[in-house]
Amino acid sequence: MEKRIRELRELISYHDYKYYVEDSPEISDYEYDMLYRELERLEALRPDLVTPDSPTQRVGGKPKEGFEKVVHTVQMQSLNDVFSREELYSFAQRVREAVGESVEYTVERKIDGLSVSLEYENGVLVRGSTRGDGVVGEDVTANLRTIRSIPLVLKEPVPFLEVRGEVFISKKEFLRLNEEQEASGQPLFANPRNAAAGSLRQLDPKITAGRKLDIFVFNVQSIRGKTFETHHESLEYLKKLGFKVIPDYRVCKSMDEVWEEISRIGEERGQLSYEIDGAVVKVNSLAQRDILGSTSKTPRWAVAYKFPAEKKVTVIKNIWVNVGRTGVLTPNAVLDPVRIAGTTVSRATLHNMDYIREKDIRIGDTVVIQKAGDIIPEVVEVLKEKRTGEEKVFEMPDKCPVCGAQVVREEGEAAYRCTGIECPAQFFRSIVHFTSRDAMNIEGLGPALIDAFLKKGFIKGISDLYYLHLRKEEIMGMERMGQKSVENLLSSIERSRDNDIDRLIYGFGLRHIGLRAAQLLSENFGSIEELQSASFEDVLKIPEFGEKMAQSVVQFFSQEQTRDTIEKLSKAGVNMKSKGRKPLKDNRFEGLTFVLTGTLPSYTREEASGIIESFGGKTSGSVSRKTSYVLAGEGAGSKLEKARELGIKVIDEEEFRRMIS
Question: Hey, what domains does the chain have and what are their CATH numbers?
Fold first, then answer.
């Protein structure tokens, strides 16, 4: 078994290198998965053989409280920027004055990402850290281990090696990540660099692993047992060790060749799958670098040539409105097609109405556009002197262009939003929220399965959830949907019909209405029918309610789409009447938070939660240091494990009975 484990590790590391570094896989994804699963199975049988450099340990770390500081043994300096050919040639003149006329340079793409250090001892990765201020960074080893293009073990056991690289995220992955952010109602990343930095600094390595980060290594910071004469020689050695080295770098013998190479990089910039914001020019000879030296912050032997943002003039033919997954309406300009940064652009974002008004953008205007972060085109200037008088002022629609529901803009906000509960543009997010734990609590129906149901047409409205039992056989035919999991899902949907209406109200996802507000609405109106008939003044009378909350409630329940959805849910057997808030028996659990996990012999989770709340306590879906007790039943899993790690008291049903008797 020990021999096979070693073989599997070597095989998987080899195929990781072929796939993530050389981009030339030799086996299918299925074959790779089979190797990986076999290794996982064998390591589970022999945990004593699991080592930190095993491929299975790339995502093995627990979430951290924070990052430890790292003092860099070799300062991670920044580069001086130059913005013109003249400044570049001035740099070359200073170099020649210091070391003589014979100078070679390397020219590399300047990757727009986050600079990191990787340290290896005897060929094994032992630490990875961010640049920080160049002197002190943060230890992000667990997160860096999740990047498949970083070798955990080098192809040669170098006594000690520290390299510097740039962590980045591809353009494609950046767009996918922002789609996920929008779907979950999270802020969008401004550009790929911010996305890479935010992903690398996640406290939970599993989140980082899901972001598909990549790296290019571009410098040897320190090495023992090996010397080099040139930077070019060191990069070739890093390739040999298994690193994904900065691609297509060129050695140039004159500054004219350097300029030619910079121009070539600029021209290909738009076709690259990742972001660059310039080119790095370095003296190739390491001996000459020693002569040139450094300032306290920057080397004198290198500069970064920064590309100017490319701008083009075009005409706005029209303005159309896109409705995002959160219901926000975003105006977009339809342009006369124009080529910019290597691609043909026919549309550009106008962000919001404030942006349009601030720049006085009109349909028919001649405008200057550029790519923001070289990803999303945007209008940066209106050439008002070119106006003919036929330009048209744009106004945001008062009805959603997708579903026809009312569009609102709240005071103090830039965004216009669709208020339709079943607007197709935001339906995915609506269903994810409706089925969530604090809403209707339909277990087993996560975002991935919801997405699959939507694509198959199983769900076209919220009420369709309650007819999924008619598609049982079809669902069982889906990937990873066995009979037991489908039966559990349908049982959970069935149970949710009987939820109290505070869960239903919260599930509707009204703006400004959280769990507490939903409970207050349930207590004060008693039924969804009464709530539909309530006036602004009626809702405003509720303690803790303000004008925005009251307006949101009245606006939502007056919508035709809302009324239609409620009628369908009622016909599907979903409870529409409040069951009344049970009075507190006493406050023995006041200030205490319980987490329930596993299956209890005598109570459902809802029943146990109700008992805890009747004694003034709270329940939570996750274990943290604020958890008071974990009530564990049969089949308790990761929550029980985490409770033990944090030293949280774990109780069983018998002890729970004693506490409530």
Answer: 2-57 (1.10.287.610), 80-306 (3.30.470.30), 311-393 (2.40.50.140), 424-571 (1.10.150.20), 593-660 (3.40.50.10190)
